[in-house]
Amino acid sequence: MYDSSKLRVIMESIRSFLFNLFIMAKVIYLGVKQFFQEACRTVNPINDPLNRQGEYAIITGGNRGIGFYTLLGLQASGMKVIAGCRDGRSKQQLFEKLEEAGIPADSVEWINLDLSSLNSVKIFAKVVIDRNIRISLLINNAAIMFTTYGLSKDGFEQQFAVNYLGHFLLTHLLLPQLVEGGKHNRYASRIVNVSSDSSFLGYLNLDDLHAKSFYNKFVAYAQSKLAQVLFNEMLHTHLTQNDHPIKCYAIHPGVVRSNWYNTTWYLKISVRITGFCNIKSETLAAQRVLYTSFSPVLENSSGCYLSDCKITTPASKLLCPTLRLKLWDVTLKILDIEQFGKL
Ligand SMILES: NC(=O)c1ccc[n+]([C@@H]2O[C@H](COP(=O)([O-])OP(=O)(O)OC[C@H]3O[C@@H](n4cnc5c(N)ncnc54)[C@H](OP(=O)(O)O)[C@@H]3O)[C@@H](O)[C@H]2O)c1
Ligand SMILES: *[C@@H]1O[C@H](CO)[C@@H](O)[C@H](O)[C@H]1NC(C)=O
Ligand SMILES: *[C@@H]1O[C@H](CO)[C@@H](O)[C@H](O)[C@H]1NC(C)=O
Ligand SMILES: *[C@@H]1O[C@H](CO)[C@@H](O)[C@H](O)[C@H]1NC(C)=O
Questions:
Q1: What keywords appear on the UniProt entry (predicted)?
Q2: CA 89/CA 123 separation, integer angstroms
């Protein structure tokens, strides 16, 4: 006679195996679709980069990948750039790459930021706030992708923590500085979330945000990116209600040959197989981020989602609208924020 608990365990592993298989199929479908879409796309850079001499921009990451090339564009527009990346190897890489690009080291400021620690986010924000500067642009770029299960310093699933929670907290803490920037500079401030079309995987499990009962690395990544998209929409509502001079956007930077494609065998293979496709370089992806940061065309389109520099229907439309409200509330609770944007 089989005892029922054993049977339950077996049934559970079959269920989870089938679900993983289903997700893999969906990932492959979405991946192939994205590769081919990207092949047909061209980048639509801003022809007329604005002169933003002396205004402050903050970018998370920035030491490599899309973030580094975005940082170069910000610097070229005359902005004072603050890069928030980790100390040690990442910081060193930032300054080595700047030197390679012939950019004087003192034209970019580095402040230590580890998004996997909420305390580090708080310290970063405090250093910025104490500088008493007005911020014109915040680019939430840093991310980890398709990582194996792991916890952040605060005990949250790490992709959710770094990609979503850390940036949520950062945006909350810097909001007053962004409001100041929007009030006193020529243009409204902007917040740009480098999200991803992988949000179209369409998962958001509010009952298990930290993947304690089920973990699939694609789902966890897609969920963190979808959460960003939902947040963008809530943030837009919040900014409008409070009449804040800030515009916010979430974007898909494209399928980009960043270092990420060197990290796992299946990503390496997918780049090989689709080598004939027109996968974009990090420089081109950065152009899309810069377009979202600067283009006057987007001035009245706050809260939108862009793919390939075009306003597109976001993945959040697949979901029930009440979900974004719930996610917003849950996040405020997790982060112990009483009122968003009020310190
Ligand atoms: N590549 C694509 O095809 C693609 C597609 C869709 C969306 N995206 C999005 O584009 C953005 C940039 O991606 P990428 O391709 O440039 O990736 P990447 O080359 O892997 O760069 C990721 C950046 O995030 C930083 N980062 C990671 N964990 C961090 C932490 N705990 N604290 C602070 N910084 C951290 C990294 O710094 P370290 O060097 O310290 O790790 C690095 O600067 C991401 O938001 C990604 O989701 C990329
Ligand atoms: C981006 O997403 C983060 C959460 O990851 C959120 O805090 C931030 O306000 C969002 N901003 C925009 C413009 O979407
Ligand atoms: C990926 O690895 C290849 C081969 O090792 C290397 O030539 C290439 O520069 C790497 N790409 C990035 C973006 O690091
Ligand atoms: C945005 O709206 C303002 C006010 O309605 C209008 O004057 C301006 O031309 C609009 N800008 C764009 C790019 O549509």
A1: Membrane, Oxidoreductase, Transmembrane, Transmembrane helix
A2: 20
How close is the Cα of 308 to the center of ligand 4, in Å? 22
The verdict on residue 13 lying in a domain is: yes
Ligand 1, atom 18, lies closest to the CA of: 65
Ligand 2 neighbour 307 (Cβ under 6 A): no
> What CATH number is associated with residue 102?
3.40.50.720
Euclidean distance between CA atoms 242 and 117, whole angstroms: 29
Q: pLDDT > 90: what percent of the chain? A: 52
List, for residues 115-138, the tens digit of each pLDDT value: 999 999 999 999 999 999 999 999
pLDDT at 254: 83
158 falls within a domain: yes
Residue-range definition of the domain harbouring residue 299: 4-334
Q: Specify the number of domains making up the chain.
A: 1
321-342 residue pLDDT tens? 888 889 999 999 999 999 999 8
| Confidence at residue 248, expressed as pLDDT on a 0 to 100 scale | 94
Percentage helix, strand, coil for the chain under 3-state DSSP, each rounded to 5? 55, 15, 35
Residue 262 C-alpha to ligand 3 middle, in angstroms? 6
Tokens 């893999």, residue located: 24
